[in-house]
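Hi support team,

I submitted a single chain yesterday and got back a structure, but I'm not sure I'm reading the token output correctly. Could someone confirm the output below corresponds to the sequence I sent? I've pasted both exactly as they appear in my results page.

Thanks,
R.
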Amino acid sequence: MTMRLSDLSHLDLTYTPQGLTLESILPEGFQHLEVRRRLGSGDQAFRRASEAVLTFEPQRATGLRPLTSGSRAVEGVDVLNRLGPVPVPCRVVWMLDSPTRAGFGYGTLQGHPESGEEGFLVERHGEEVYAAVRAYSRPVAWWTRLGGPLTWRGQRWVALGYLWAVQRAVDRDRGRRKG
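Hi R., thanks for writing in. Yes, this is the structure output for that exact sequence:
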């Protein structure tokens, strides 16, 4: 049976504690991941990066083909990504949209091959703009447990892809302003 976006509203999150990717306080008992990238500087870079993150552009750019119950990331929005034929169901558990920080975190739902949370954050430090991806997870499916270190490397590779996607969104905007 194929999982549909409408199926997600009846599913529960598969982990506790929740919401910790916002402040980088990652809990014990999970594999941790954090990658950061400087995107540029100024208001335009921050706004474009924030918009890209809050509209799931990094997920689309890395081939996860997200279906979402809302056009923007807000708490409670369900997200059904696909890793090839494998459904990857998540729910947004936090969202932030302020003048210096914007992003969201989503947690795994029943049927996800992992258990945990992944957060996407754009931050301003003075004029400098950075993006970060933070995650804590542990394998659930037999094939993610069996994958061990290869699974962790794959997650890191995808997280770096998210950051490149946000960088491309900022650069694309910069190119339009120059032309």
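A quick pointer for reading it: The first helix runs from residue 43 to 54. Let us know if anything else looks off.

Best,
Support desk
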